[in-house]
């Protein structure tokens, strides 16, 4: 399955007021592993950036002066995203901006029609009702290092969200992402690093019990049930 973890930075909060995308960051996953086929661009919005937005992401008009306009990369980006599951934190915000930008390029098909959409804000609220669902809060919850996040940034936030998403959906984020280059090497033991290196790109090895081991296991369960009077396993499986 091809998944793209996506984030944007913008000149302001509302595309209906003419605000534009100034950065897009995408991290591609395939079968829960990094592919390296990421997409990251800064974009000249051809308008002033709100002071409040600059305070959040630190990106200025001066920095973007020599960057491409969105229409110069719109088709390229649309083709890159098409067919993938998009994983986005607060999806309506980013989709609203992206669909408006694509419309300006003459691409009238909404991303929702060519991509599956997963909103990690909604997912987090369902999994952790009553708890904060911000990216920083989820990084803290899942033990993901976000100390480099002094400002919001589309690629950095997409990288962090990829870790959060994998932790939320299977707890394998550290193993799959550490060796993939996100944020560089992380702290940890040499043994853990070796384990991570061995695990990347190799299928899990499943070792099944043989008949003797199964028999011993069932005898043990039956003995515990007899001793305590409690059922530890379905009756048909507690007889050796």
Structure write-up:
The protein is an alpha/beta fold and 240 residues long. It has two domains: 198 residues, Ribonuclease H-like superfamily/Ribonuclease H (Nucleotidyltransferase, domain 5); 34 residues. A hairpin with a 2-residue loop joins strand 2 and strand 3.
Task: Summarize this structure as a short list of keywords or feature phrases.
6 strands, 10 helices, disordered C terminus, alpha/beta, 240 residues, Nucleotidyltransferase, domain 5
Compose a concise summary of this entry.
The chain is an alpha/beta fold and 240 residues long.
Q: Largest beta sheet, briefly?
A: 6 strands, mixed
Helix and strand content put the structural class at alpha/beta
Task: Assign a percent range to the helix content.
Answer: 40-55%
Q: What's the overall average pLDDT, rounded? A: 82
Give the percentage of residues in beta strands: 5-15%
Number of domains: 2
Q: Indicate the CATH architecture of the largest domain.
A: 2-Layer Sandwich
How many alpha or pi helices?
10
Shape label: elongated
CATH class of the largest domain: Alpha Beta
Total strands: the figure is 6
The Rg value, from CA coordinates, equals 23 Å
Indicate the low-confidence ranges by residue numbers: 173-207, 232-240
CATH superfamily of the largest domain: Ribonuclease H-like superfamily/Ribonuclease H
What is the CATH fold-level name of the largest domain? Answer: Nucleotidyltransferase, domain 5
């Amino acid at each position: 399955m091809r998944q793209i973890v996506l984030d944007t930075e913008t000149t302001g909060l509302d595309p209906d007021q003419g605000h534009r995308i100034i950065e897009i960051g995408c991290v591609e996953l395939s079968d829960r592993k990094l592919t390296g086929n990421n997409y990251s661009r800064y974009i000249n919005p051809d308008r002033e950036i709100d002071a409040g937005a600059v305070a959040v992401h630190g990106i200025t008009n001066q920095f973007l002066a020599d960057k491409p306009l969105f229409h110069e990369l719109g088709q390229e980006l649309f083709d890159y995203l098409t067919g993938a599951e998009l994983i986005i934190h607060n999806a309506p915000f980013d989709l609203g901006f992206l669909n408006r930008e694509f419309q300006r390029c003459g691409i009238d098909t909404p991303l929702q029609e060519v991509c599956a959409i997963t909103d990690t804000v909604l997912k987090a609220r369902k999994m952790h009702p009553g708890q904060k669902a911000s990216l920083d809060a989820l990084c803290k919850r899942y033990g993901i290092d976000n100390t480099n996040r002094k400002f919001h940034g589309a690629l950095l936030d997409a990288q962090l969200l990829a870790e959060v998403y994998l932790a939320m959906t299977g707890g394998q984020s550290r193993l799959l992402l550490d060796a993939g280059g996100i944020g560089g090497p992380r702290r940890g033991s040499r043994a853990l690093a070796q384990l991570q290196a061995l695990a990347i790109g190799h299928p899990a090895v499943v070792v099944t019990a043989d008949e003797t081991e199964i028999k011993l296991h069932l005898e043990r369960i039956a003995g515990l049930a007899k001793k305590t009077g409690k059922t530890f396993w379905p009756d048909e499986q507690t007889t050796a």
